[in-house]
Amino acid sequence: MMQEDYMKIMKKLLITGFEPFDGEQINPSWEAVDRLLTEINGYELVKLRIPVAFGEAAAKVIKVVDEIRPDVILCIGQAGGRGAITPELVGINLRNASIPDNNGYQPKDEPIVEGGECAYFSNLPVRKIAHAINVAGVPSHVSYSAGAYVCNDVLYTLLSHYKNTEMRIGFIHIPYCAEQNKEPSMDINDIVKGLVIAIENI
Ligand code: PCA
Questions:
Q1: For a pocket test of ligand 1, which of 173, 180, 186, 195 has the largest count of ligand atoms closer than 8 A to its C-beta?
Q2: 90-92 and 119-121: which strand pairing?
Q3: Distance 77 CA to ligand 1 centre (A)
Q4: Average model confidence (pLDDT) across the chain
Q5: What is the sign of the dihedral through the CA atoms of 47, 75, 196 and 84?
Q6: pLDDT, tens digit, 9 for 90 and up, residues 13-64
Q7: Nearest to 152 by CA among 172, 125, 176
Q8: Residue-wise over 38-61: b if at least 16 C-beta within 10 A, else e?
């Protein structure tokens, strides 16, 4: 009985990471999500691995949101070339891919939602999150562009889909991890540490 009461007051956070893409064997976003404890800052974490596929990735998130009704959705993705953990401020209504997604689809200058708003801001406190991660010694700053590939597709689609709800939605890009032998990279433990701090500050 007590256990049930306790479970009822736990808030739920759906956290997603991506499958590998672009010839990589791993995606550090999923590696980091997989390593997180399942309870942080009063949130029960539900972890979901999503495909690097336009449309499909966001649809999978929405399906699980409908099932589990989380309070927060936090999506994580790899941003090769970045050296810091970067909470994204904005999702834009644009698909433009320099490489095909994992279904072989490579859109060029297409809207995500035909006739939709140009952009939506994340409603997570991205500055507070970036600051807190930095203070803990892990490089972090706010990003003003999640790109126009699948990560932005997921962020924009979720912000658009839940725009008139209480749903809190954020996206954090992370660097390559050391195992991928690409630069710049970040130790997976620092990536995990950064994500924990992010969850502590949402
Ligand atoms: N990064 C890509 C998609 C999947 C991922 O991890 C992006 O930044 O769009």
A1: 173
A2: antiparallel
A3: 5
A4: 96
A5: positive
A6: 999 999 999 999 999 999 999 999 999 999 999 999 999 999 999 999 999 9
A7: 172
A8: eebeebbbbebebbbbbbbbbebb
How many Å lie between the centroid of ligand 1 and the Cα of residue 200? 24
CA of 173 to the centre of ligand 1 (A): 8
Residue in 54, 78, 186 to alter for ligand 1 test, most ligand atoms within 8 A of Cβ: 78
Reply yes or no on whether 44 is catalytic.
no
Nearest CA to ligand 1 atom 7: 151
3-class SS letters over the chain: CHHHHHHHHCEEEEEEEECCCCCCCCCHHHHHHHHCCCEECCEEEEEEEECCCCCHHHHHHHHHHHHHCCCEEEEEEECCCCCCEEEECEEECCECCCCCCCCCCCCCCECCCCCCCCEEECCCCHHHHHHHHHHCCCCECCECCCCCCHHHHHHHHHHHHCCCCCCEEEEEEECEEHHHCCCCEECHHHHHHHHHHHHHCC
Query: Rounded to two decimals, what is the model's pTM?
Result: 0.96
- Which residue in the list 39, 151, 177, 183 is annotated as catalytic? 151
- Identify the active-site residue in 31, 56, 173, 177: 173
Q: Could you say which of 88, 110, 131, 179 is catalytic? A: 88
Q: Using pLDDT thresholds of 50, 70 and 90, give the confidence band for residue 9.
A: confident
